[in-house]
Design a protein that fits this description.
alpha/beta, Rossmann fold, UDP-galactose 4-epimerase, domain 1, seven-stranded parallel sheet, 14 strands, about 45% helix, binds serine
Length: about 325
């Protein structure tokens, strides 16, 4: 008998790290992880098995499928938006082709066990593309189907994989006589995420977390976007809570497969003010990187998460004040003490 597990790809990354932590506390499932890197030491003991390798390695995935019966896949492995612009071909191979392999694995397992594999997929505000700043200012809270014109490799990859997930859930083998048991794809469009414990790498919303971590370490920081640059953000515990709650939501309560979720929206200047409130001596200046600025300018100021609220009871625990006052600052101070 194969063992029934939850599979997490990209487990050594920011969301993965926090998700392993959280899932292991509830102890409800055995966790198997895949990542190019070793798992961070503090979560090593919390998983049943870690496989070091690439999600683009079909033999690795086949081996995994032969050993484990997979109930839920949290497919987090991806190259983020800045990194993806530097190596777009590799980004496509990992973000799209890797996702396709995992969807195929989930599709096969769903049929084999006669029960849908749940496939939880993080998408992003990068799936949007506001054509100019005037439009961004006019349409402040965008809904899932609006302005889906990403201008980055990462955003295009995410938007396309949303469609692939919907295809595998709703239309897979649509010409066959008998409808197969299909996987159950559920996707969250995250805003910029901020963790007190880990640093993002390769993203374009990174100026927020970088500003804060630099201040906590007593290092100067030059923010790479203009002060008026506004997008939405979320504390990492809310991001993890959302992924777990969406995975647990009864299938018949879900009216769509892709959900926006948001916590708070603020400008880089307001972010800086908030950091200075807790670290008054912080040296935070601006040195605008025009090309990265251009990317953030296409992302919306905020997203409308009413459907997530209505269908599966989404609501963030951390608004801006609680995020800094109760989560980020106390934990970050302890971390760098
Ligand atoms: N945080 C991501 C990035 O900056 C967006 O989802 O690439």
């Amino acid at each position: 008998m194969r063992k029934s597990v939850v599979l997490i790809t990209g487990a050594s990354g920011e969301i993965g790290h926090a998700l392993v932590e959280n899932l292991s506390i509830s102890g409800e499932c055995d966790i198997v992880t895949v990542d190019l890197q070793d798992l961070p030491k503090d979560i090593e003991a919390k998983v049943s098995r870690h496989i070091k390798g690439s999600i683009t390695d079909k033999i690795l995935l086949d081996d995994l499928a032969s050993r484990f019966e997979i109930d839920v896949i949290y497919h987090l492995a991806a190259l983020l938006s800045t990194r993806a612009e530097i190596i777009p071909g590799t980004a496509h191979r990992v973000n799209v082709e890797g996702t396709l392999l995992l969807l195929e694995l989930a599709a096969e397992q769903s049929q084999f066990r006669g029960k849908p594999v749940k496939f939880i997929f993080p998408s992003s505000i990068a799936a949007y593309g506001m054509p100019d700043l005037a439009t961004k200012a006019q349409f402040k809270r965008v809904r899932e189907w609006e302005w889906n014109y990403p201008t980055t490799m990462y955003g295009a990859n995410k938007l396309y994989c949303e469609r692939l997930g919907i295809y595998f859930s709703n239309h897979y083998k649509q010409l066959s006589e008998e409808k197969p048991i299909t996987l159950d794809f559920r996707c969250l469009r995250y805003p910029g995420l901020i963790s007190a414990f880990t640093m993002p790498s390769g993203g374009t919303s990174d100026y927020g977390p970088e500003m804060l971590h630099a201040a906590a370490k007593g290092e100067p920081y030059a923010c790479f976007v203009r002060p008026d640059t506004t997008i939405n953000f979320m504390a990492m515990p809310d991001a993890v809570k959302a992924a777990i709650n969406l995975a647990h939501a009864p299938a018949d309560s879900l009216t769509q497969r892709v959900y926006n979720i948001t916590a708070f929206s603020l400008s880089a200047a307001e972010f800086r003010e908030k950091v200075l409130e807790y670290f008054p001596g912080a040296e935070i200046s601006y040195k605008v990187h025009q090309n990265r600025q251009g990317i953030v300018d296409t992302w919306p100021m905020d997203t409308d998460d009413n459907h997530a609220r209505r269908d599966w009871g989404w609501s963030p625990d951390y608004d801006l004040d609680r995020c800094f006052g109760e989560y980020l600052v106390p934990n970050i101070k302890q971390r760098y003490q």
